[in-house]
């Protein structure tokens, strides 16, 4: 199971929006410059996030993007699901033995639990606060 650059960059965009939540809308150009990413690629990603109802665009000279909900209410799992689809450790799990199906199902549940119980607020705090020793627990 791998998260593609689309998922990683999309999460990066969402964390940047979470860090500046309640400020003015953020342009993709400023995020691209701050993170040294392709603005063109971020435009493709933000379109998927907008279609998933996670961000909205504000037009105009001072326009950009904002989160549609508070960062504490948006999970990393929602972002990854919108960009990558469901996370599965292996394909065709039904072809596996009973013991292996159980193992892969538990692995998938553990990954989903971490993603679903980690908010954008949590991730934004990790980037802005000195949180030595901070860990996520299931």
Automatic annotation (TrEMBL):
Return the Pfam families for the record.
Rrf2
The entry lists its GO molecular-function terms as:
DNA binding; DNA-binding transcription factor activity
Work out whether the entry's keyword set contains Magnesium.
Answer: no
Please verify whether the record's keywords include Membrane: no
Source organism per UniProt: Gottfriedia endophytica
The UniProt entry, under Gene3D superfamilies, shows: Winged helix-like DNA-binding domain superfamily/Winged helix DNA-binding domain
- What name does the UniProt record give this protein? Rrf2 family transcriptional regulator
One GO CC term on file:
cytosol
């Amino acid at each position: 199971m791998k998260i593609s650059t689309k998922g990683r960059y999309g999460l990066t965009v969402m964390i940047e929006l979470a860090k500046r939540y309640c400020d003015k809308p953020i342009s993709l150009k400023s995020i691209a410059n701050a993170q040294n990413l392709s603005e063109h690629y971020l435009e493709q990603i933000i379109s998927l996030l907008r279609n998933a109802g996670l961000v909205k665009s504000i037009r105009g000279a001072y326009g950009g993007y904002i989160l549609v909900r508070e960062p504490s209410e948006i999970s990393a799992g929602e972002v990854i699901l919108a960009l990558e689809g469901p996370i599965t450790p292996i394909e065709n799990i039904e072809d596996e033995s009973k013991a292996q199906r159980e193992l892969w199902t538990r692995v998938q549940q553990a990954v989903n639990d971490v993603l679903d119980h980690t908010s954008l607020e949590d991730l934004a705090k990790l980037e802005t606060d000195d949180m030595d020793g901070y860990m996520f627990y299931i």
